[in-house]
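Review form for a predicted model. The reviewer records the input and the model, then writes brief findings.
Reviewer: anonymous (R2)
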Amino acid sequence: MADSPSSLPLSGLRVLAVEQYGAGPFGTSYLADLGAEVVKIENHRDGGDVGRHVGPHFFGADDSHFYQTFNRNKKSVTLDLKHPEGIAVFHRLVAGADAVLDNLRGDLPTKLGLDHQALKQANPRIVCAHLSAYGRTGSRRAWPGYDYLMQAEAGHLMLTGEPDGPPTRYGLSIVDLMTGLAAALGLLAGVMKARETGVGMDVDTSLFDVAMHNLNYPGTWYLNGGTVTGRTARSGHPSLVPSQLYRTEDGWLFIMCNKEKFWPLLAKELGHPEWIGDPELATFAQRLKHRDRVTRLLDDALMHAPTATWIERLSGKVPVAPVFDIAQALENPFVHERAGVLGYRYPQGGEARMVANPIRFAGVELPHRAAPQMGEHDDEMLREAGFDEAAIARLRSLGVIAGRSTMPAALDRDAGHAA
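Model under review:
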């Protein structure tokens, strides 16, 4: 069993999440996994979080594998934020919250009243974290945007893949995931300051800015030396050799001699101590200059045995890894040694198996609750905010919360999945 809520690292933090799809929910999933009370605000008029309907794999109605991945350990409240009474209800919820996070198109938070200026009367301490495609200011604030577009424009596709192949995206939506994490970090920083000063703030991040920030040292190389880093064969490091894929008897091995001390160790383990003193192989600079020769030498040596043999011989001495598919990666015994896959339990029984949160705290077990049904916590949260049964019934009759619908669809979704 997970520890009690009060023992969790982020206990006492309440976040209202006007979120859907991937980037925003991924960021708040970190917060929820670590014990924050994350309350999803869902537009029931158009089916709630669009992630509920992303196939092709489902546990049940409105409960896709995709949705579960991003929304475990959260609560769900339905609310129409374009209805005047919906905004009034939202302000009551804001009064008891630390932060609001949205991943809407950049122009929408102000239009919908989700920024600090609009919410500070309800709670002067409220921190409003905004995750958009291109930011809330500038010429693109109203543009929809998605991960792959950012990879393309920020230069990532031209860094990925084989030199003679087409530009290639990552296999995962890594910009979405990293932007969600950046938004969660920004939100926590804002809450720390608000608790110190009593004054909240707006915190912004965007898919585009994170994609650019991820250029990291190749960006610095260009800005200071004019160097345009390109693609290298076999997923090689741009300057460190050997640090790439090499052929074995039955497949591939990734070797990363990213410190000089590893090259002599590798040479000895492969039965070629003469490489250590070879002037064309002795340093990173020389191996980079003679990268093709290093590739031929290592291929020739490694193709005499299968990958598993080399993993057994080299692991713990030289940084190496096999190349797995997703099934092999998740069935890796080391993953299970690390409790890297957990069952997230439904209240009515059963579980959804998912990859565990990578942050661990000594002596603390994080919660294992499956993602909520849409509107599962409507009554609970509204009662806490001061609404009695008659008031809740009235809101339901007006379509402000899930029930009889009288209004058109509420939220514009374009980067709404801003991400």
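Findings: DSSP finds 18 helices and 13 strands in the chain.
Further findings: The CA atoms of residues 69 and 354 lie 7 Å apart.
Recommendation: see findings above.
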